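Continued from yesterday's entry.
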Amino acid sequence: MPNIASAKKRVRSNAKKTNVNTLVVSSMRTAIKNFEKEIKAGNKEAASTNYNIAIQRIDKAMTSGKVHKNKAARLKSRLTKMKNVM
């Protein structure tokens, strides 16, 4: 545990930021999984809705720097391919 006040504050702020970052990335992954689940089930309308949500979450993670832009592009491309094949 740090002794200096600024270091203590850093520990607190890093913990808060870690929680937010984890929330953004996990919600992105959950949205992707929900879309893939609907694709396997064959529900076009639900898949379309989940596709839009997944793309929004991927974009949010990319713009906030949680996911690299190339990874975001790759994920979006894969999801779009799945949607188009369906």
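--- second protein ---
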Amino acid sequence: MDTESPISISIVVACRNEAGHIASFLDSLFAQDLHGMEWEAILADGMSDDTTPAILRDYSLRHPRLRVIENPGRIVSTGLNAAIRASRGEIILRMDAHTRYAPDYCRRCVGELQRTGADNTGGPARTDAQSVRARAIAAAYHSRFSTGGARFHDESFEGWVDTVPYGCWRKQTLLRLGMFDEALVRNQDDELNLRLVRSGGRIWQSPGIRSWYSLRSSLSALFHQYFQYGFWKVAVIRKHRIPASWRHLVPVTFVIANAVLLSGMAISAAGRFGDWLRTLTAVWLAMAAAYGAAILLASVSVAAHKGMEMLPFLPPVFAAFHLSYGLGFCAGLLRFLSRSGLHVKADSVFARITR
């Protein structure tokens, strides 16, 4: 007689003010094929002040496997850690409220974790988009020109990677690593995976693990999101003393080069240094022309594969990815290299989560 105990998993989620998305996410969660598994779902609510708590109460009454706990820290890292501490499963599987999941998502994550012996498993970043602008943002998101070619942007790649969206770990792995860094508002998942890899762990990506993330659909929301990514990336580099990848430094180098050249041009004009002004202007125009040509080439290339109707939207989208990340990185350098350190108000532009 087979007396082997079923696999026990805990699905952990952190959310705040998700009234517009939380019901569809929970429907996706409870549509998962978890037959033969012992499982629970723990959702840490970051003190939502919209109708999210009422929706969660309704679902928890109808679904006893769902436990809702409070997250006074209000950010993702504190919420995930609270859910992990409250969990009972031997395997921890993270989900996100802005993502739609295939019915076999959890089963495949756990299966790949067991099959490969990896310390973390996940699927590539797939996106959901409806309007032409949103589809342009999604297409740019998957382009090497905007995001530097990280493997998790490649929907067909299978193999060992540096990071994956969300994640599936053995609980003992997370406890050994110290869980998520609660000082980080953004980039907490990349930073955890950086610690995992540098401690000798391995991360496996399988295209059979399918989920679809809802990207920001406006330029302003995209700009704010990637400004924060750039800002908090400095905190990660400060902690580990080296970038996880040198591609993270390209946008800030471009922004700083523009700032130096434009400042030099202004000073030269004010001081009537004609030769310097002409030289700096020529250099800046050459750099701007090269960047403009690169954006145009990338936009035409992406539109040719994804749909020419999005071509007018792609140049500003690419620029938003680059400039927002670079400016956020500059702000992070000023903040984290000063005495202010990591103390950032929850409602500030650096920490406020918007859709």
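The domain at 8-215 is CATH 3.90.550.10 (Spore Coat Polysaccharide Biosynthesis Protein SpsA; Chain A). The chain has twelve helices and eleven strands. Will compare against the first tomorrow.
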